[in-house]
Amino acid sequence: MTKTSRALSVWRTIDTDTFLVGTPHYPEHVDESYWDNDARRMAQAGFNTARLGEFAWHIFEPHEGTFDFDLFDRAIAGLGRHGIKTILCTPTATPPRWLTVKHPEILRLDGNGRSMSHGSRQHADTSSTIFRAYSRKITQAMAEHYRDNPHVIGWQTDNELNTSMPESYSPSALKEFQAYLQDTYKTIDKLNFAWGGDFWATAYDDFSQVVFPQDFAPTFPGPGHLQDYHRFLAFSTARFQHDQVEILRATNKDWFIFHNLGGLRDIDFRGQFSTDLDFVGYDIYPFLYDEFFRFGDHAKAQALHLDVCRGFSGNYIVPEQQSGFGAQPGFCTLTPEPGEMRRMAMSSVARGADGVMFFRWRPAHFGAEIYWMGVIDHDDVARHRYDEAKQFATEMTALKDKILGTWVRMDVGIAGSDFDNQEAHKTFPIGLPSPQDDAILLHQYCYDRGIACGFIHPEDDLSKLKVFYVPHWVIWKDGWTERLETFARNGGTVIIGARTGTRDGNNHVIRETAPGSSLSKLTGVRVEDFGRLAAPGANGLFATMTRSGGLVIPPDRPAESSRRIRRFTFGNRELDAGYFYENLAVDSDVEALGVWSNRYAEGTPVITSRTVGKGRVLYVGTYLTPELTHQLTTRTFADADVAPLVAGLPEGVEVTLRENGERRLLFLQNIKDTTAEVTGVPSGKNLLDSDRAITGALTLEGYGCAIIELN
Predict the structure, then answer these.
(1) Known catalytic residue: 320?
(2) Are the beta carbons of 709 and 665 closer than 8 angstroms?
(3) Is 159 annotated as a binding-site member?
(4) Which of 54, 320, 340, 582 is catalytic?
(5) Tens-digit pLDDT profile for residues 149-178
């Protein structure tokens, strides 16, 4: 595998001629008598890589300054004898006890002042100068020891940074926060302006007075203060990783370096965190995501997660792909049925993975993940999960030259991957859906119909898209407007959601009519009035917010009165609006596609369209609902030449296309356990079925997969 140095882009592929397929492995968890048989079976399964060492700092450095690599030297050599290469990890997610005893000040403190503790993971504060120094020492020692080891081909930094807890309110973190702010703003007057220091007397005399933004202490902190705290957390995370990357790069320029993301919190993927890496890795647990998103459909949840992740920096690898039942003491997932493990891995490839590693080789017999199942079972028996992994590895190795170098097609792009907008919503959600919560409705609509859809940053290359949707990005840059105008002039359709452009980079509400001068010029609309509506079926202020900014409706409250309900006509349909309304004034060249149809705003535009060059720009002065999503796509997709990848796609079949200038690969997966008959398949040959010709119809068994190389 070679390293990727091109700019971040959703269209970026990984420069490699090797499809990494393998497993995270923990030789320290099992007696050495098992090791050779483990390596032999990995090789027989077609694995070419194992990932080692991410939680083994206490083994690599059992006492301060005393390093012992013997266990992993022998494990790596044993894997190498069977042709298995090793990816090593910097073990900084779990500092050894001797370190936290000597320096308890490196431990994170939560918002209530409670210190995190040894006995878990990610308990050390990545902003701590002391912890950073020790992390550099262990990274340096490992890098120098394995500098010339032919079996070590690359590195993973840490493990799932910020997944357990990104925040810290420790004294050392406060000093780093203050230093970050001083470096950012230079003068305290600039900070006071950015944070609105004249509101509630929140101004500071110097940076040493700055405090953390504490929730309910006793009430809400300012949005600018909170925004900068999360920017600081992202900065600290990138800096912590950069320490390690510098050492690894200087030691062996041929190693590739990546990170495995888990929870995606407080990381700016468009900044140094990603540009430091050769590519990004995302750990994929579809049944866990389904628990979080509550779709009732783990395949749809996986597709959403993968498409969001790909929008950050393009193709990726999956360092941890769910293989079986997953559990920690406080939760557990459902279990993939026979056939689903391979099907889920195939979905990862279909949506941009250029490498997949099944978590984990064998389950642990002790610790907080004793029921997180692996490729083989507790009793050391290889059953159907091993067979599925072997089938998948064999297929990917055989097809690597077809798959590698292709990107995932998108006809419909959803604005994503912007750290400031992600955080700006959380600083002041007022019961409204987050941009991603809103975008899920459009993504699900496209998923169900087999329409190529994904997430993309407006600074990326939009030319491959046909439709681009901006889901309520309150922070907006004028340069993005220019890119949207170019896209529209070349024939694209732009759809901009309510509230877009209403705050500036300091998280201040703008001092001009929304959506701001550049977007008003592009859309031809001005927001004259706005307000909140109840969520569909909800109860106004008595609704409570979920973690993601959505709403939970208390069952013991009466329904919202009709006074709060807004309706609008769109085409020949009358629809209920949800969450938010805007009354729009429009320029003479703007067509009103939808108008409010009741109460005082009757006849006022809510959905507009303006021709721009060969394309058009729509503005939607409310939030998406399922009904509005259906009507909006019906009115726009056909004119934009957006069509399903497979006509008449049956329910339960997922379809995606990977392509480049030379080839097009249509991925089809049956997410159900019953046979599916797919018609309307473009002609080509099924690479998973001996290159059998396909001429319009295809039968997929339960959890069956096909990769059609199109003619």
Answers:
(1) yes
(2) yes
(3) yes
(4) 320
(5) 999 999 999 999 999 999 999 999 999 999
